[in-house]
Amino acid sequence: MIVSIASGKGGAGKTTVSAALAAVWDGPLAAVDLDVEEPNLHLFLHPEIASETPAYLEIPVIDEEKCDLCRACVDLCRFKALAMFGDTLMPFPDMCHGCGGCMAICPQKAISPGKRELGTVLRGLIRDSGGAGRSIGYLAGRLRVGEAMSPPLMRQVKEELTRLLETAPMDAVLDAPPGVSCPAVCAVMDSEFILLVTEPTPFGLHDFSLAFEAFAPLKKPMGAVINRAGIGDAPVAEFCRDNGLPVLAEIPYDRAVAEGYARGRTAVEANPALGPVFAGVISAMRAAVAKMAAKEAPCAR
Amino acid sequence: MREIVVVSGKGGAGKTSLTGAFAALAEKAVLCDLDVDAPDLHILLRPKKRFTEDFVSGFEAHIVPEACVGCGVCADMCRYGAIVFADGGRFAVSPLRCEGCGVCEAFCSEKAARMIPRHCGEWYVSDSRFGTMVHARLFPGSENSGKLVSLLKRQAKEIAEKEGASLVLSDGAPGIGCPVISSLSGVSLAVAVTEPTPSGIHDLERVLGLCAHFRIPAAVVINKWDLNPEASQAIEEMARARGHLAAGRLPFDPLVTRTMAMGQVLPEAPPCPFTDEVAAIWKRIEEYAGALRREKA
Q1: The complex's ipTM?
Q2: What is the C-alpha to C-alpha distance for residues A114 and A34, in angstroms, rounded to an integer?
Q3: Beta carbons of A38 and B199 less than 8 Å apart
């Protein structure tokens, strides 16, 4: 089962929930940080990093000898990554989305692949502090400071996850970026369950409704965790009820958890009573994914 | 004209609550919500829309089923996995994966793939009790947030010039990617809001790195400082060591959520030490922005 932990509003508690779920997960697991702009999961799960390798986007390199200034590449590129100034073809590598169209269309084969560093992909292991000898796989992307595009790096982290899942059967928890635009959708679109985290404040409810609107068309089972319950009185639970979204847990606001977080402790470490609550979230997600699979199975045949 | 943008790296640090407060404290400003992905400033400022415009940006591929012969060239060439096999031996586009590059259109021998402009959202110019507000809503799942941010900034500056306002005050997005880079472009000062938690510090360092990359001066405000006093101290020292202004710190206070629930900004609450400190922080930021300006001149 692959689940993504998302929210419209930043700071709602995605990483708190991801780390707590990882801490009580009931089987082999990969914890994946897809918030590549601001990855934080490692601060709570303390993985041992086995490797950190640069990730690249393929960009055009022009051979001026071969270029006959036909403009085919300039006309094709919709991202203004290539422009003609007088009789010089100029690439703008930062604008490039890596579609490869310029290389394919050039009749003179004057454009070859170069690369722009997007950031790095990290792989590691989290040794289970519970002493059960269970270890959790860790994957993350880290966007280079100054790089604008996060989805290409996220796609490479997801490819790495696919490779990891081929080596051994395991579940995966994906910590998604905040927001509801392309990076957030890119993070959740290939998961089997989307867990939305929110808080009962006006900002929390507003961004939660945007997230629901963004992710509902993906037609995946979804559920909500209401974090910091009691901190505000926005009608988040009513919104969930009206939209048929099950509330899988309500985590009361607790100064001890907030202070624990401030010192790098997971919510379960700060308040062990939350362990069974998150275990309940995991069973509810498993049940929803199984139900969805049963519903889809006849169509597959 | 000065442009001040409030950023944070980590979401939920308090950007919008502070921007709203600064909007009330600033002399004459045009206000701008650059968190186009999940905008919240309107919840505090309750603006009345003067007008609405569509935001159309980029393209999305569409394959005309009748023209598709199922050769699969588009699917082979698409680097985003956006072309899927559809019924009847034809191909179709998965819009959420489509990057709008136009490679499918360029290489389709049957001219079955066509690029259509994408309607990504709306933007508004509104009246608020603290001045004109420029804001937007990117449709859920849409892209080109960076371009929408640039458009809003351009509009806000034009309006400020027309109205004789000397400041554009903007609420930024979390993260360090495309919309944040656009929001920082050319501003006089970035205000980075953080909290003394491992994620707050980690993300602050990255967003300050981004400011340094684009040579944007920054002021740091610590929210909920009492969650970890030693970490708060360390953040202020780090900010000063990097040449930024440590503009002040605020304790955790339920007042923030209470005023938010009433659609109010902090200076509208009855005066208390918390609101006094918010006002003092804004004063330090304004003075710092003024000093930077004189330095530049």
Answers
A1: 0.94
A2: 25
A3: yes
